[in-house]
């Protein structure tokens, strides 16, 4: 019985998160995603990622005509033709 009580107390101690770590986890709870190559099959990501609750923060495709449908799905997201521009 003492062994079971000790094990229960020890496992409870591992689940307590200091308040500083809990705030850091909440700050990183949502992903910020940049999509590179938005034409063709990648259109699925433009609809799916926001439905999963994540953020699309930039879109990049050098072929604007191929990516036009994806770009239109997320009009407020910044668009780039060169992925190195999105890093700045």
Report on this structure.
Helix content is 52%, strand content 15%. It is an alpha/beta fold and 88 residues long. The protein has one domain (2-86): 3-Layer(aba) Sandwich (Rossmann fold). The protein has a 3-stranded parallel β-sheet with strand order 1-2-3.
Q: Main β-sheet: number of strands, strand sense, barrel status?
A: 3 strands, parallel
> How many β strands by DSSP?
3
**What overall geometry do the principal axes of the alpha carbons give?**
globular
CATH hierarchy, class:
Alpha Beta
Through-space gap between termini = 60 Å
When the domains are counted, the total is 1
CATH topology tier name:
Rossmann fold
Tell me the number of helical segments per DSSP (H or I, 4 or more residues long): 5
What percentage of amino acids are in beta strands?
A: 5-15%
Going by helix content, strand content and strand pairing, the class is: alpha/beta
How would you state the average pLDDT, rounded?
77
Indicate the radius of gyration in whole angstroms.
21 Å
